[in-house]
Amino acid sequence: MMKRTPRAHLNVEAQTHAGMTGKNNEDRYAVASFTLASSERTPVLFAVLADGIGGHRAGEVAAELAVNHIVDVVAKSDGHQIRRILEDAVADASNAIAAHSASNDNFKGMGSTCATAWIAGDRLHTASVGDSRIYLLRGGKIQQLSVDHTWIQEALEKNIITPEAAREHPNVHVIRRYLGSAVPPEPDFRLKLSKEDNDEQAEANQGTKLEPSDVVLMCSDGLTDLVWNDEILETVKSKPNLKEGAGALIALANSRGGHDNITVVLISIPADYTSKQVKKQDWLSWLMGE
Question: Which of 37, 81, 151, 269 is the most core-located residue (most Cβ within 10 A)?
């Protein structure tokens, strides 16, 4: 089993807002820090974001179940075979949501998206279900790492609609894959470092090495419905720290109507990450709060 640590080895900021329409906040997130139970004691940062689906407070129940079950499976694992662990975590969360939905008419049909980022040392692994997104901000560019599981994404891939038409399309929120379905969904392990990456290459990118000053951004669609990718990049770049960056993204979405819940998780690799690793014992003692 991995060991929990009181501090993260990376810079992290997470913020959520219900939006401007008065609806309940059905987004949930969690960030947890560990070290691998081995002689190397590699530091691990795990983040998960879930966007609930369903009325009568069912969405927030589904998202809460998703986050709790996924974090629980990850925390009880040995931290090796990351893909298998995340497959088990997604299946466990999906089954829990489905069971809860079947046991209570008020929660019938509820579900949740999920996006996860697992960073072991400086190696990034991702998995996602639904339309909550994961981005990489690097060197003045932004790249969407995850792939949406939506009607719109399928239509874009088949050239049925244009990106410009997609935003106003009535099917914009039709999700093809979600936690809580009758059969647990397969988590998507494509990690697209380039728009040209095919599916095989995108999966092979798992475990990609992050660079100093990289920022990994996770968000619910309450942000991406209203803020363009280049605006996300410029907003984060223009702020002196992750806290202000996350707050500015939420404020921008809210200024444009804030029609949905908005959650942002920002993770950055310290500029001096490599040099910190040189003093390994001091670094590990700091992580463990010793």
Answer: 269
